[in-house]
Amino acid sequence: MKAGSIAVTLAAMALAGCATMTEAPPTGPCRVTQAMHQRYAGATFRERLRRTIQRDANAPVARILRDGVPATMDFRPERIDIHLDDGGRIDGLRCG
Questions:
Q1: Three-class SS state of 33
Q2: What is the DSSP annotation of 34-82?
């Protein structure tokens, strides 16, 4: 019985070594570079793009802002604000 549990443990450890490594989540604080502005300016916003922008900015939290829509004015250094124009294109990126 003891040999059986050792074999199971070894098999589990071998399979764990084959597991796909996942990317560490962003930890903040947010940082936006000029290269990011150039890369994303004018791009049509899609939800999958949110995760890419968050990763590039090291921001664990993202907020989508549109003109004329109320938003809180609190400053959160780990958050990136993605500003969209009326056509759903990225108009700007800002931390806070």
A1: coil
A2: HHHHHHHTTPBP-HHHHHHHHHHHT-SEEEEEETT--------TTEEEE
How much is the pLDDT for 27?
A: 85
Inform me whether the pLDDT recorded for 62 exceeds 60.
yes
Q: What are the tens digits of pLDDT across the range 13-56?
A: 555 555 566 778 888 899 999 999 999 999 999 999 999 999 99
Q: Is 45 within 8 Å of 84 (Cβ atoms)?
A: yes
**What H or E segment, with its residue span, contains residue 25?**
none
For residue 68, give both structure tokens. 């004329």
Counting Cα atoms < 13 Å in the Cβ hemisphere of 52 gives: 9
Burial grade of 79 (CB within 10 A; 0-12, 13-18, 19 or more):
buried
Neighbour-count burial for 58-73, b at 16+ CB within 10 Å, e otherwise? bbbebbeeeeeeeeee
Q: What is the pLDDT of residue 59?
A: 96
